[in-house]
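Structure tokens please, single chain.
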Amino acid sequence: YALMDGKVKTQAQVLTLIHSLQKAILERRIKKTSPYAAEIKLMQEQLIKLYEKMGDAAEIRIAPASLKRYQEIANAQTPMLSIALLKSYVSLNGKRGVDDKIEKLLARMKKAADSGKVTRDDKYVRTISAAYKSMAEHINNKSEVLTIHPAELNGIKALIRGKAGVRRTQKKSPYSNAAASGAHENARRHPEVIPSATLMGMQFETIGLQGKYRQLIGDPSVGFTAMVYGLPKSGKSTLCLDMAHYLAVHHGKVLYCAIEEGFGYTLQEKVGRLKASHPRLYVTDRVPENPGQFDFVFIDSVTKARLEIEDMDALRKAHPRTSFIFIYHTTKEGRFKGSNTHAHEVDVIIQVENGRAKGNGRFGVGGEVEV
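Here you go.
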């Protein structure tokens, strides 16, 4: 915004900046808790007034006192180390003869962790951890080319492009949530009213799901929730273990909470039969205290875990970038406790019946696959 001062900008360029600001508000990257709340609010009001009054183009002039304040804030920000590390990682994708650079980047990441410059509180620590493991596997396997999976690559590029990584003194989000002009005070998560053009200009992060599971549920957003239900012995666990393996291979770190079966022979047999063993697929016999370290968590089953709707809602809110897949048993009549309430709270519903899984939800019209 400060760099616009003294320059001629078109109405379209001003609208682009407004869209970027609105997008950051909707994604909660701008909150009311910022020490810069007053500046952000004033900046937004001025942009909207300018857009409404200007013609096709106009020379931008910012009041000297405001400009000085904006410049002081902007110049005080330094790039986050985690973002710099991720940029270096992306730059190595698909290149040959860069093993020395990969080893140097591995050393930089390790040093950053050991020195406390990148901690567990860093919002990108999971992404950096996945990048570290990917490079380590590349070196150990002596691969010719470091290949970053498209879904992972797109996710990192979105972080770099959309989240202006800067180091600040607060652990929480550094920006204010200056709500859109006229927004109600209680509109905590997004402005009350936004232009349709703003909505169409937004970019939402999906996991990049492909294959039969995209056919089943579409391409869900990061942090989606799903329920899988069916009669006992209908193949729910088989379907979910296979899906967990697919997600581990292509999309990230997966935890399968086998509360129903535990660490027993039946679970071992299923994993072996499905060839579902993978370095990024973990199993446990309980719901861990910190499921947020995983990208996907399967809970088999909700009844055995003794989870109520409030518990599942708390899991989602505490770990917004972790996808949860809840598995249910049904009675012979096809009912289960809290069915309507639970079904309304998730993004995807999968029914397993007679050897087939039928999907429906918010990310596509839904399809069927064989179990």
